[in-house]
Amino acid sequence: MKLLVLSDNHNDVENMFTFIDILSGYDFDAIIYAGDFSDVNVPKGFKQEDVAKIIIEELRTFKKPIFAIPGNNDNKQVIELIEKENISIHGKGRIFNGIGFYGFGGAQTPFNTSYEPKEDEIKKGLERSFIDVMNASKKIQVTHSPPIDTKLDYINTGIHVGSRVIRNFIEKYSPLVAVSAHIHESRGIDFLNNTLLINPGRFAEGYVGFIDLEKEKPEAKIINLIE
């Protein structure tokens, strides 16, 4: 199975249409969206859920399963929308072709954004979602916040700002892959023990990730669609 990994569109609908057209030339079997469909400030005449709906409808043109969580900028209405659209793995798990996708969204920031669950809430949400996929032979974890003390969670000052709970969960359960987002400047690929980690970067800037599960060990790459 090959996975397309996206995150952090932040209302950029105009460029998204171009990127979706480009992605039509790529081969993948399912889509992971790791949060921040929208942003606190939306274009005039739109609500956050309006933007999220447009993104979801465009992703649906690929006719592939979508596994999504909210980001810290996605409000309650966006969270409800992805649940209504049957693409959510926020606090729940889904199995597709024998692979268990589970996760929990949101992230802590200093900016009082729309959805900032505490660490204990993230822990409980991941536990709930993991139960749904515990019998799957392969598991993919999806969170908006990255695990702390990795290549994926440091900001420009060099400080690591990821989640201790998310790191602990990876170390305890060893999912095959752990997808995260949120820290735009830390897009990249890393490992935590045997778990492959990926932060695909901002979709609004043309960055996407691909995960190949068809080899003995999973492989990942990040590309920019406009380079």
Characterise this structure:
The chain is of the alpha/beta class. The protein has one domain: Metallo-dependent phosphatases (Purple Acid Phosphatase, chain A, domain 2), CATH 3.60.21. Helix content is 26%, strand content 23%. It is built from five helices and eleven strands. The protein has helices at 13-23, 48-60, 76-84, 119-133, 164-173; strands at residues 2-6, 30-33, 66-68, 93-96, 99-104, 138-143, 177-179, 188-192, 195-199, 207-212, 219-224. The strands form two sheets. The protein has a six-stranded mixed β-sheet with strand order 4-5-6-7-9-8. α2 links the parallel β2 (30-33) and β3 (66-68). It is globular and about 45 Å long. The mean pLDDT is 96.
CATH topology label: Purple Acid Phosphatase, chain A, domain 2
User: What is the residue-mean pLDDT, rounded to a whole number?
Assistant: 96
Strand content: 15-25%
What is the strand tally? 11
> CATH class, anyone?
Alpha Beta
Oligomer: single chain
Can you summarize this structure?
The chain has 5 helices and 11 strands; from the N terminus they run E-H-E-H-E-H-E-E-H-E-H-E-E-E-E-E. The protein has 227 residues and is an alpha/beta fold. The chain has one domain (2-224): Purple Acid Phosphatase, chain A, domain 2.
Task: Give short descriptive properties of this protein.
single chain; 227 residues; alpha/beta; Purple Acid Phosphatase, chain A, domain 2; 6-stranded mixed sheet; 5-stranded mixed sheet; 5 helices; 26% helix
Question: What does the secondary structure layout of this molecule look like, with pairings?
Answer:
Blueprint: E1 2-6, H1 13-23, E2 30-33, H2 48-60, E3 66-68, H3 76-84, E4 93-96, E5 99-104, H4 119-133, E6 138-143, H5 164-173, E7 177-179, E8 188-192, E9 195-199, E10 207-212, E11 219-224
Parallel strand pairs: 1-2, 2-3, 5-6, 6-7, 7-9
Antiparallel strand pairs: 1-10, 4-5, 8-9, 10-11
Helix pairs in contact: 1-2, 2-3, 4-5
